[in-house]
Amino acid sequence: MYPRFLQFGAFVISTYGVLAVVAALCGIALWTGIARRTGMNAEKMQNAGLLAVVCVVAGARLAVVVANWRGFLEAPLLVLGAGTLASGSAAPFGVLLAVVAVIAYLILARVPLVPALSAAAPAVMLALAILDVGDFAAGSHYGAPTALRWGVTYSSRFAARTTGVPLGVAVHPVQIYAAIGHFALAAALVMMLRHQFQPAEVLGTALFTDGLLRFLLAPLSGAYADAPVLFHVVTSAQALAMLMVIMGGACWLGHGKQAAVHHA
């Protein structure tokens, strides 16, 4: 749609890059705001948020360097300047690194882990929703071909060159589907926190619902047909989504058992 936010000659500021910055700022602001309202240390939450952003970016760049090490040796600036956050396995590696680093930081900072992560849940969903819009603008993570009236057709050669999105073909706006789901989930989680749901319930709802959303949207992805299938049943993306659903359910079950023991 609009992959270039600004362009000065050969210098391009991508729309995805701009929205990634907006997502990070909004996510950190919401996390620290929730921390203040719930009596947690807002400064430590802000530090954890900044650490997450650094790890996502650094981890994604590192993944691309490792996957393209020959090209990196020949043209390091070209490889480092690539749009890694929206491509391949780079982003998941950065996210994994961020999760590990944030959990380690919270433990070392002696911050109660589950309450801190439950406060982060709506912030993460808000950031994901904004990044989904960035994906839509860039053409990354595009949908499968569709004959539906609301299918979108990309025409930018820049988008095709950077993300591989097909031109002149109507595809599902799967990124917008995901954005709507993540915005709605972020709002629901904020409401749960305001109504004083237990942290494990909030965290469980975030994991379960986001996992279910990802599982349902996977068949509408443009990469679904060629994605490797695990055990001839589900793709790796769907397997990860199922794991999130199981973890979310475990949070709810664990909270239920604790509540039963407490009342007993």
Write up this protein.
This protein has 264 residues and is mainly α. The chain has one domain. Helix content is 68%, strand content 6%. It has ten helices and six strands; from the N terminus they run ββααααααβαβααββα. The strands form three sheets. The protein has a two-stranded antiparallel sheet with strand order 1-2. Strand 1 and strand 2 form a beta hairpin. The radius of gyration is 19 Å and the shape is globular. The termini are far apart.
Q: Could you give a quick summary of the protein structure above?
A:
The protein is mostly helical and 264 residues long. The protein contains ten helices and six strands; from the N terminus they run E-E-H-H-H-H-H-H-E-H-E-H-H-E-E-H. Helix 1 (15-37) packs antiparallel against helix 2, helix 1 packs antiparallel against helix 6 and helix 9 packs antiparallel against helix 10 (236-263).
Helix content: 55-70%
Describe the biggest sheet?
Answer: 2 strands, antiparallel
Strands of the widest sheet, in order across it, are 1-2
Classify the oligomer: single chain
Number of domains: 1
